[in-house]
Amino acid sequence: MTNMKRVSFLPPLLLPLFGLAFATFAAGDDQFIFSGFTQSSLALDGGAVVTQGGLLDMSNGTNNIKSHALYPTPLRFRNSSGGKVQSFSATIVFCIVGAYPGVSANGLAFFIAPSKNFSDAQLTQYFGILKPNNNDNLFVIEVDTFQNPDMQDINDNHIGIDINSVLSLQSHEAGFYEDSSGVFKNLTLNAQIELQLWVDYEEEETRINVTLAPLHMGKPSRPLLSAAYDLSAVLTDTAYIGFSSTAEIMNTRHYVLGWSFGMNGQAAPSIDISKLPKVPRLRQRAQSKLLAIILPIATAALIISVGTVVILMVRRRRRYSEVREDWEGEFGPHRFSYKDLFQATQGFKSKNLVGAGGFGEVYKGVLRLSKKEIAVKKMSHESRQGMKEFITEVVSIGKLRHRNLVQLLGYCRRKGELMLVYDYMSNGSLDKYIHYQEDDKPTLNWAQRFQVIKGIATGLLYLHEKWEKVVIHRDIKASNVLLDDEMNGRLGDFGLARLYDHGADPQSTHMVGTMGYLAPELVRTGKASPRTDVYAFGMFLLEVTCGQKPMKQDAEGNQVFLVDWVLEHWNNRLLSKTVDARLQGDYGVDEACLVLKIGLLCMHPFPGSRPSMREVTQYLDGETPLPELKTTQLSVDMQGLMQDNGFNTSVMSYPQLMSSFGAVSDLSGGR
Ligand SMILES: Nc1ncnc2c1ncn2[C@@H]1O[C@H](COP(=O)(O)OP(=O)(O)OP(=O)(O)O)[C@@H](O)[C@H]1O
Ligand SMILES: *[C@@H]1O[C@H](CO)[C@@H](O)[C@H](O)[C@H]1NC(C)=O
Ligand SMILES: *[C@@H]1O[C@H](CO)[C@@H](O)[C@H](O)[C@H]1NC(C)=O
Ligand SMILES: *[C@@H]1O[C@H](CO)[C@@H](O)[C@H](O)[C@H]1NC(C)=O
Ligand SMILES: *[C@@H]1O[C@H](CO)[C@@H](O)[C@H](O)[C@H]1NC(C)=O
Ligand SMILES: *[C@@H]1O[C@H](CO)[C@@H](O)[C@H](O)[C@H]1NC(C)=O
Ligand SMILES: [Mg+2]
User: Fold this and answer.
1) 30, 475, 533, 580: which one is catalytic?
2) Would I find Signal among this entry's keywords (predicted)?
């Protein structure tokens, strides 16, 4: 990027023609400027080169070599022979790049010399231009980065004015005087910093000023060096100007980026910084600067990410933490990891919540690996007491396989939480099909209801009799009957009540079940038996056939008990009137009445008078005819029971017993 200006002689249009023609740099209004040296025709020798980027590189790293770069033609410093040396000024942008920070080497010099012949100059020192003595007509501004005792250098970082001698006329620590404060600020020459140097000579004043500043700062008004010296006694009429340097052992680079010169009334043009070439090592500096910025950020980012990972891991550990006790070892295969359940239910998201009961919430989930659909029942359970017994039972129950039971797959424990994992029943629980708004069409016809009833009876029979030990369900009701894909009834939640029933003590009020389904002796003694299951099953039969809840409020706000109501209709020989009206008569009357009668029989107040589940299935299948029931007898029995227990039957009919004991049940935390 050469920019040659011959300002006063030629109109601008002709400038290009003369762009490279320097031959006649005559005395007069002359100036030139180089912003980079790409197209300059500098006379180079030694190791001096102009790089591709346009930098003048005064030292290419080779040892023992002196390098010069000269303006190609000599300049006329005097108007007339014997006259005074006229004023001149030079501006130089340079940059010294040391191979190793803090290691100094010889510097760079700007000179005015009588010839291009520097064969006498030393190879290794004195900037490749000075001789130790007998120099003639030589004016040198030294940019010295090496403390040379021969030169009586003040330090290894100074600027000096040398006239015909290696001993400086004047020198100063590199730096500048700040305009605002007048305070001296030193600069390090050998620090990959682009610096600007101004050399001014004034003819009248016969004064040499040398000023240094960082590139982006303007010229300070106070020069670094200011020496009164008449160069008329030094310079020849015509002389060469240029730079010199000795190549360095340290591979220190002396770059000149820009140069302007002016004389005879023309000041050196100021150098446009934006047009200057870039110093290659500066990129490294920029990189290291960048590194200085990036490194802390990267470190911080690393620390933050490591911290985050640790926190996440801790949270994850905590999130997926479980309670596991030694005795659980044997149940390993039935144990689910919380993480799997958490992922299956998408973190127990509320959109996966399928329902909530007395023990906890039920979430739908899909196991990640097997894609199997599961229902996770999540219960809060603080007490460890009875946990082992319960888990043992859960696991043993898990071994139960029956087409009318909801398969229990396993469990998982966390602090204060217990989760049971079941097969997911796509059609939900039966209660949703039989309790709905009056005017809705039934979603379950009689045939389906009968099939469900028979299925549940078979399932309960399996629990009571077909398994190696008797399993009492304890919580039979419509919401615990689930429907599989084929609308088969499957009994769920078996044995669960056991968890809340520590009732080895008959006096215990830890009675569990659901109001309306509780057999009277269960209310009295808190002791569950297969017969209390049969009682609840009876209630279930009435519920399904009549499509009504065990208890409801009548128009006057009195509680009406389904069993009372059915019994009353039976007494009045209107049993079929109790069948769910929403079936619109579309049912087998015999079947429906059979189911109702079995239901009432199952709800016999005396446990011994209730049929077993085996008998119930036989009645349902029609294998055994239902024993002839005396409705009045049943009523009398029921009433008798009331009296036995000191109840005033005229005020309180039997099932109300339930509600009065319901408080007890509620206290137990069960249903
Ligand atoms: N295995 C399952 N598959 C699909 N849905 C289920 C499953 N188990 C339970 N549900 C649904 O979750 C709901 C809540 O069940 P949950 O057992 O917690 O309460 P409940 O049966 O109403 O009362 P209880 O706590 O006395 O059993 C049920 O009504 C049912 O709709
Ligand atoms: C430096 O310059 C000299 C002379 O031109 C040359 O012989 C040498 O190979 C150069 N060294 C490098 C590293 O370019
Ligand atoms: C040198 O010559 C120029 C014109 O060529 C003139 O303007 C200037 O004054 C002269 N300087 C001296 C010192 O004679
Ligand atoms: C350079 O100067 C030296 C002595 O100072 C001389 O021997 C030599 O011939 C000169 N070289 C040229 C090219 O003039
Ligand atoms: C400036 O010079 C003084 C004295 O020579 C020195 O103590 C100081 O470290 C220098 N500062 C810099 C930035 O070079
Ligand atoms: C040199 O510096 C002195 C002091 O700042 C100033 O008075 C003088 O004009 C300067 N001379 C030149 C040629 O810049
Ligand atoms: Mg349930």
Assistant:
1) 475
2) yes
pTM (predicted TM-score):
0.50
Residues with CB under 6 A from ligand 5: 173, 186, 188
Question: 480: CA distance to ligand 1 center in Å?
Answer: 6
Choose the most confident range, by mean pLDDT, from 19-33, 159-173, 648-662.
Answer: 159-173
485 annotated active-site: no
> Is position 554 within any domain?
yes
We report the CATH number of the domain holding residue 407 as 3.30.200.20
Residue 332 in tokens: 């390993």
User: Quick check: CB of 475 below 6 Å from ligand 1?
Assistant: yes
Output the pLDDT for position 212.
96
pLDDT over 70, % of the chain = 80
Query: pLDDT tens for residues 18-61?
Result: 333 333 343 344 889 999 998 888 999 988 999 988 999 988 76
Task: Quote the CA–CA distance of 373 and 127 in Å, as a whole number.
Answer: 87
Say if residue 333's pLDDT is above 70. no
Tell me the DSSP string of 32-60: EEEES-TT---EEETT-EE-TTS-EES--
pLDDT band, residue 332 (cuts 50/70/90): low
Instruction: Give yes or no for residue 69 CB within 6 A of ligand 1.
Output: no
Q: Is the CB of 119 under 6 A from ligand 4?
A: yes
Strand partners, 240: 113
Q: Which atom of ligand 5 is nearest to the CA of 185?
A: 1
Ligand 5 center from residue 188 Cα (angstroms): 9
Q: What angle do CA 256, 258, 261 make, to 5 degrees?
A: 115
Task: Using the atom order of ligand 1, give the atom closest to the CA of residue 406.
Answer: 1
Specify whether 453 is located in the same domain as 415: no
Taking a 5 Å cut-off on Cβ, the residues next to ion ligand 7 are 357, 480, 493
pLDDT at 29: 47
Tell whether the model's pLDDT for residue 611 goes beyond 90: yes
- Does residue 541 sit in the same domain as residue 627? yes
Same domain (yes/no): 443, 419: no
Domain membership flag for residue 298: no
DSSP reduced 3-state for 413: strand
Q: Which domain range does residue 546 map to?
A: 436-663
Number of domains within the chain: 3
22 is a domain residue:
no
Tokens found for residue 118: 């520097």
pLDDT in tens, 544-597: 999 888 888 777 878 888 998 998 898 888 888 999 888 888 888 999 999 999
Determine if residue 378 is labeled as part of a ligand binding site.
Answer: yes
Q: Which of 79, 202, 230, 231 to mutate to test the pocket of ligand 3 (most atoms within 8 A of CB)?
A: 79
418 and 490 assigned to the same domain: no
Question: What is the three-state SS of 504-515?
Answer: CCCCCCCCCCCC
* Residue nearest ligand 3's atom 2 by CA: 79
Q: Which mutation among 52, 56, 60, 123 tests ligand 2's pocket best, with the greatest number of atoms within 8 A of CB?
A: 60
Nearest CA to ligand 1 atom 9: 362
Compute the distance between CA of residue 130 and CA of residue 125 in angstroms, rounded to an integer: 8
Q: Which of 177, 186, 187, 224 to mutate to test the pocket of ligand 5 (most atoms within 8 A of CB)?
A: 186
Residue 270's alpha-carbon distances to 262, 273, 433, 528, in angstroms, are 10, 9, 95, 106
- Tallying the residues shown for the chain, one arrives at 671
Does ligand 4 have an atom closer than 6 angstroms to the CB of 370? no
Burial 21-48 (b: 16+ CB within 10 A, else e): ebeebebbebbbbbbbbeebebebebbb
